[in-house]
Design goal:
Elements lengths: L16 H7 L4 H6 L4 E3 L7 E5 L2 E5 L26
Parallel strand pairs: 1-3
Antiparallel strand pairs: 2-3
């Protein structure tokens, strides 16, 4: 993911620093300066939706069958608002 903000709260502790480095980046400052409207990422098992400045960051993972990820099967991204980019 592009930001540590995509981490679930229980992984945002000191003992998970290796996992943070392996799966998440700290690109917040670069994204704040960008003109990116939407950043969709995977490689997580935790649904997120937040903004870094004007950039919306989304993850909607299905995960494993026995896993609760917050997956929304009805989530849609409409491209009409992205056509002017």
């Amino acid at each position: 993911s592009p930001s540590y903000r995509s981490l679930p709260e229980h992984l945002n502790r000191e003992e998970f620093q290796i996992e943070k480095a392996l799966y998440h980046s700290n690109l917040d400052k670069e994204i704040e300066k960008s003109h990116i409207d939407l950043w969709v990422h995977g490689h997580s098992h935790h649904a997120v939706s937040y903004f870094i400045n004007r950039t919306r960051v989304l993850a909607n993972p299905r995960g494993y069958m026995d896993e609760e990820t917050g997956f929304n099967p009805w989530m849609l991204i409409e491209t009409s608002s992205l056509e002017d980019c």
